[in-house]
Amino acid sequence: MAEAYIVDAVRSPVGKRGGSLSQIHPIDLGAHSLRALVDRVGIDPGAIDDVIVGTIDAIGGQSGNVGRSALLAAGFPEHVPGVTIDRQCGSSQQAVHFAAQAVMSGTQDLVIAGGLQNMSQVPILSAATVGEQFGFSMPYAESPAWNARYPGEEISQFRGAELIAQQWNITREEMEQYALTSHQRAAAAQEAGRFANEIAPLNGLDFDEGVRRDTTLERMSGLKPLTPGGRLTAAVASQISDASSAVLIASEQAVKDHGLTPRARIHHMSVRGDSPVLMLTAPIAATQHALAKTGLTVDDIDLFEVNEAFASVVLAWMAETGAPHGKVNVNGGGIALGHPIGATGTRILATMLNELERRQGRYALQTMCEGGGLANVTIIERL
């Protein structure tokens, strides 16, 4: 079977809401990582066959096929095409899958997969909010067929995370301890310079702004629940953020033709669905499917990245898969580093790739929960 190689991965810092990157136009935010990637690899952007960019809430500055606009703003030649895709939180991870599939099919040789999201300028659910101004409600509420299948169900990521905490009997204290560990790990990684190789500084920022070095369990315990009587608070949820990221995927022929040195290969990629009501449990089934498909076990994987949309998601995933916390999100995750939705998939891939190299491991697995009850899994092998 043809191979898909990861040549390099670059990202912007992750800015917090209203922070250092909040005033950068989404097009320019995306262009930054695209330009940084081709400059770092030293490849002619005119050789790129396609640019696939993940973004959700494609309105305002993120509308009109923002992926194409970003590559033009990055100075790529006009003949280079671009497309914008939306698989919710997994958008840029899915972009990697589409890029790898194109390369493995032999139809393309060099594809950039990436993502961008300026949540400060375009808040989450903005598309639905705009729709309400024209008399539309949330999509689930209006479909008779949907409501016939899931009668009376409130569809919300917050409700899903709360239901997961209840179903797996995860306490608020356990989630707060997990969140504290995420901040501690991220702070330690920053101090050790572990993110330096993946971050292309932007607007004077060269680090992820969301890490809270001074947070404590006592401070977390004083926060109000997100829902009345619930277990979740803002402290155990991912942060609203702004960022972009990009990965170069190449065929074996492109590696030879352009004198590239790949850092890893795509070993496996898949996507699975689960309950849209619980919404955030699909990483469990998706991971189990990926391991069964590849014949690998949890012990064979040197490193796991499971997006920290909420602490309950990762804690339930660890309980079901048996993956040890010592190999999961070792440099922190979305609770500390932020979750710039469209950009998170390739941000995680960049972090995972660098950590896999630092540990001299062989395999790393990435997964993340996505709206609609979905989850992608990508397994990479270090070269």
From TrEMBL:
Record-level Gene Ontology MF annotations: acetyl-CoA C-acetyltransferase activity
Coiled coil (residue ranges): none
Signal peptide interval: none
Pfam families reported in the protein's UniProt record: Thiolase_C (PF02803), Thiolase_N (PF00108)
Residues covered by the Thiolase C-terminal domain: 261-382
Enzyme Commission number: 2.3.1.9
Name recorded for this polypeptide: Acetyl-CoA C-acetyltransferase
Source organism (scientific name): Microbacterium mitrae
